[in-house]
Amino acid sequence: xxxxxxxxxxxxxxxxxxxxxxxxxxxxxxxxxxxxxxxxxxxxxxxxxxxxxxxxxxxxxxxxxxxxxxxxxxxxxxxxxxxxxxxxxxxxxxxxxxxxxxxxxxxxxxxxxxxxxxxxxxxxxxxxxxxxxxxxxxxxxxxxxxxxxxxxxxxxxxxxx
Length: 161
Hints:
47% of the residues lie in helices and 14% in strands. By secondary structure, it is α/β, with parallel strands linked by helices. The chain has one domain (2-159): Rossmann fold, CATH 3.40.50.300. The chain has a 5-stranded parallel β-sheet, with helices on both faces. The longest helix has 20 residues, at 51-70. The mean pLDDT is 92.
């Protein structure tokens, strides 16, 4: 099983994903580390990524997931996966992919982004991500206002892990 934590910046994908992976003893992959240097520079400047910017990034994340699937290994991945097309590219033909959508309001997300000094994603890009977001109808949806432990427990319960 591969569990993908998706949502806009500041939703807690990395925090929840790391704790889930640690709890399960599975590898964790932070999607941000797979961005091309040019994409990181673009976001640092406050410019949102385009679909053309995202495609190679999603392909590299799909390759990571494929690697685990080929080895019959489980893993946890944090990736914004904001659109239905992005989630389709990410998933590809892989079976056993489960998506968790970490949902939160702008009022909850903005302070979280402001509290992340040194991260390449500036708070000014939050509105563009919220505008791009296509909420999934086939994912486990969790409210980011819940404690991390409760979210991890809900994921484990829902997916039987």
